[in-house]
Amino acid sequence: MLYNYRGADYLLHLVDTPGHVDFRAEVSRSYASCNGALLVVDASQGVQAQTVANFYLAFAQGLSMIPVINKVDLQHAEPQRAMEQLQANFELEDPVLVSAKTGLNVADILPAVIERVPPPEGSPEKPLRMLLIDSWYSTYKGVVLLVRVFDGVVRPGDQIMSMGSKLKYFVGELGIQYPTEVSTSALRAGQVGYMYFNPGMKTISDAKLGDTFCHVGKEVEPFRGFEEPQPMVFVGAFPTNQDEFEKLEESINQLTLNDRSITIAKESSHALGLGWRLGFLGTLHCSVFEDRLRQEFGGSELLITAPTVPFKIVWRDNSRSKTGETIITNPSLYPEDDVVRTKVEEIQEPFVLATITVPAEPAEFLGNVIELCQENRGVQVELSFFATQVILKYKLPLLQLVDNFFGKLKSVTKGYATLDYEDAGYAKSDVVKLELLVNKEPVDAIAQLCHRSQAERLGRMWVHRFKQFVDRQQFEIVIQAAVGKRVLARETIQAFRKDVTAKLYGGDHTRRKKLLEKQKVGKKKLRAIGNVIIDQKAFHGFLARDSNAPTSKSKK
User: Which residues are involved in binding GTP (predicted)?
Assistant: First the structure.
């Protein structure tokens, strides 16, 4: 935007960054296009977990920080407490006290930006050195790039080169976001703007974020680039009608055009048929995409499996992997028990360092949070007390975090706790593969990797819940949860009893005994060759996140 301050016009580049941890990589890229940041704190809530995480992310990139305390108009606002927290946690002073609702002091923010954030460095006289910050797909223009020019000048018609791929392009159009696209004659050192090529990039995958562009024949020192975000939550997506597999593929491809962080791979399930294995940055990222996919494809025609996380198998030698390690994102790829015993050195699961903020009062909130973390295999790293809040840091398994940990946290603190987390790498864990068996046949769509200590509890819940979706049939149905050959839980659905003696008259006990014996032998045969076919709607019910989802029976 253009802003006139004390008689001079300033071109300001403003970015609104998401606060959720799932989009941390996007926040980091946004910081690369900026010289400063507004750290906004709610006057009624004070410093939150996301505030801490985003401050250190911006601080690590050397941004000038301007604290802003919002919602000072609320009756229960405590701006003085928020100021003390900013000073104690981040050594930040002179915040701008505002109310976005009433407009109080909002006009003071941009002057503070101009006075306290240094202007971008760089010279238009130097060779072009340009950083690719973001990209998206336009139906009419193809791949559009968002770039920051650090040195030099770039104009339409210039031939530039990607220093990562060495591919060359002619600049078609460029300009600034004002906030919509406004074309200009050039982008100069210090400016951030959009551009697309003519002819355009063939695919969005050619636009590698963090890449350096220069004029052809004038190579420069490339930027370090961005760390590629790795998917940490995986689900399976299957059409209930296999004839619509191609329609699902089209829907997924359409939605992933502008979200390169999603990984997709074809998957086949004996129970559900052909589908896709989708990888996401986190649970919110997964939930948002799932909602969009249901709208695009049709919610009732789509089945999404329970989320899981990647596990690392460390082999005893390099015969199965060049690096001696294998990352698995699908429980079906977990090795058999004999392979685990003889070939596997250890199995590791991903951990996160979680930062949780809790009000100091009432005191039971802190006890509830500590108990919740311990129940989820958390290890306390730090515990800090402040005047009105407590900040806890726990090392938690990511697997526990995707199991509605945030919902449980909100429940035990009546919605007052906040959560943020960062990757803490992999660590050795006692991981097992839990399977659901129906008449001794595994149901692959419901298999899951979990910690051994959680297996029995999860298994009992599975068999109890799955039982309600299976109809009684002419033979006994046994539902089991097992780890390897060890059965942890069992439910039995008794067979229908057909009255084969109804046609008898009189008291012929010999004939009656013979018919009952024949029925017994027939049921034994059915039990030996019987195969329970579970209706797709049963999987919808069982895999639904809502435990109160309506039940749906199976058919033979």
Answer: 16-20, 70-73
Question: Which amino acid, 499?
Answer: D
For the stretch 160-208, pLDDT in tens is: 999 988 999 999 999 999 888 999 999 999 999 999 998 888 788 888 8
Q: How far apart are CA 201 and CA 162, in angstroms?
A: 12
Residue list, annotated binding site for GTP: 16-20, 70-73
Binding residues: 16-20, 70-73
Tokens read off for 421? 């987390």
Tell me, yes or no, whether 227 lies in a domain.
no
Predicted pLDDT at 501: 55
- Measured in whole angstroms, the distance separating CA 346 from the mean position of its chain's CA atoms is 26
Is 284 exposed, middle or buried, given 0-12, 13-18 or 19+ CB atoms closer than 10 A?
Answer: middle
Name the residue range of residue 98's domain: 2-116
- 271: its two tokens: 């129970």
- Give 10-57 as a DSSP string: EE--------SGGGHHHHHHHHHT-SEEEEEEETTTBS-HHHHHHHHH
Regarding pTM above 0.90, the answer is no
| Long-range own/partner contacts, residues 372-376 (CB < 8 A, 24 or more apart) | 372/405, 372/408, 372/409, 372/412, 376/400, 376/401, 376/403, 376/405
211 shares its domain with 238: no
Whether residues 282 and 368 share a domain: the answer is no
Nearest C-alpha neighbor of 281 from the set 7, 8, 20: 20
In the block, tokens 């698995």 appear at 328
- Average of per-residue pLDDT values in the chain: 87
pLDDT (0 to 100) of residue 506: 57
